[in-house]
Amino acid sequence: MTAIITKPEQSGELLLKLSRETVPTVDNSKILELRESGASKAHELAIPGRKDEEWQFTDLSQLWAIDFRAPQTVTIDKNALATFLLPEAKNSRIVFVNGIYQPELSDISALPPGVSVSNLANAQKDVLVNYLGKEKTPEFFTALNQAGLSDGAVIHVTANTVVTTPIHLLFITVVEEIPRFYQPHSLIVAETGASVNIIENYGALAEYCSDLPVNYSYFTNAVTEIYLEANAEVIHTRVQRESGDGFHIGRTIIEQGRDSRYTLNEINLGAKLCRHNLDILQKGEQTETNLHGLAMITGQQTTDTHSAIYLNHPHGIANQLHKCIVDGSAHAIFNGKVFVPKPAQLTNASQLNRNLLISNKARVNTKPELQITADNVKCSHGATVSQLEADDLFYLQSRGLSTDTARSLLIDAFSAEILAKIPLESLRQRLGQCVACRSVE
């Protein structure tokens, strides 16, 4: 039996070793350069822990205690994907299983000229050279992902191309007894005047309901880079439904050019522990950023969302609404930062975190932040933490509804505001059913 690793430094070194052992799918000098740079950064950076302000409420001890192994190629039948496929994107999807590209499960035949969807091995070299790994902010898990860069999804939309068909990025983990370590990487580039709708989906394939923890752990360390050039538009839906034993740490990096518009609809339902770091950098005037988030957790789950919006130019718009529904002994964390320096005059920014605690043992830590030095702006931020109102429950019960039905209706109403933002009807209904199922547990 393999000895359990209890020290973060040991576990960090093991994960870095596994990253370095992962063989790239393409022999490209850019990939090799990024891998070496990522390994160097990972060696230099401190392992995140409770003593760090950014991680003070997120306990990683369970993650560090697991002896993870390198991923293995797994072949799955196409029928096994039935519960993950979206009718609107049946011919516009790219599939990765255990972090490895699966061409036989992918289908991009419905995509028009002007857009390319591929893995790293088949991506245009100039796109990789100009954009891949462009963001340089040091962070341990990002550096770890870069050190193990081997395969990934690349979406490139050329100038003035409007893609009306949604593109589905599907990352599937096959749950097994041996704990595995996966590092998906996605690169999305929308050139000047381009428009595209992306669904980024993380899920688990198991013989049982993937929500149920059965001590089959794995770790997904994902990084997504999104670059919008002038007047481009990206609608991005990110769905995280890892298994009840899974660990998911993700980072999404967005860089917006002048007059660009970025919308994120984020749904977090799975994983034993989920942490999403979201960084948005304004690179020109008159950008618009809309962030809609919903996390619904129960049992011993932990979900942590850290976002940072950097509004560095005039006439920027940023709107963020993040909701958490917390049941059982689960723990939700939110830390949202909006930076409005002096050059960002005439900025309009709002941020709100709303939390609904279903049980007496549920916990939430919330910290919305505004850092403003500009003097001609319209900015607001806030947070609420509440339980189901007894008066609302009584009103519905007085109309003949049972306690469970009344409770479910109130939870559904709380989540509906975010779910309604999802642009795909099939996905909206599927997630709505999942929320309804959980609300009656």
From TrEMBL:
TM segment ranges: none
UniProt-listed Pfam families: SUFBD_core, SufBD_N
SUPFAM superfamilies tied to this protein: Stabilizer of iron transporter SufD
InterPro entries: Fe-S_cluster_assembly_SufBD, SUF_FeS_clus_asmbl_SufBD_core, SUF_FeS_clus_asmbl_SufBD_sf, SUF_FeS_clus_asmbl_SufD, SufBD_N
SUF system FeS cluster assembly SufBD core domain location: 180-414
SUF system FeS cluster assembly SufBD N-terminal domain segment(s): 23-168
Annotated GO biological process: iron-sulfur cluster assembly
Family, as annotated: Belongs to the iron-sulfur cluster assembly SufBD family.
NCBIfam families: sufD
Protein name: Fe-S cluster assembly protein SufD
